[in-house]
Amino acid sequence: MEKLKSALSGRDEDEESGIVTQISDATTLSWSTRIKGFLICFILGVVLSLLGSFLLFIPKNGLTIFAILYTVGNILSLSSTCFLMGPCNQLKKMFAPTRLIATIVVIVCFALTLMAALWWQIAPLAIVFCVLQFLALTWYSISYIPFARDAVKKCAGSCVA
Questions:
Q1: Of 26, 35, 47, 94, whose CA is between 20 and 30 Å from 133?
Q2: CB 98 within 8 A of CB 63
């Protein structure tokens, strides 16, 4: 069976495979494992974001807890797609020219939210960065839907005009 697999993949048995190929072959996940990983990571991200939202109104440290859980939850949800397409492919798609600005804005919003809550400890600023984080993630997400950004731009333009 292994001979057939190597013949169909175009590799000879005598040919030594490179380290990248060996690592890729050793770490390949089945489709069901990928789906399970995606669901676990995504659901955990959503739960952390919601938990952070519920803990926002705790006196004294509520904002800090909210900012951390909300941001970590969003990072987990975003990285859950690595299970579906692989981390390298995910990074290639994230930093493709059509998504480059959206990706940079999302990453900057993650950093600014955490800095406002943990380092600067300015509550209103952390809330503003959380809202910006939500908007940036929404804009990034719709970049995967063909013509969705154009539709949103036209809709917003007609609402303003």
A1: 35
A2: no
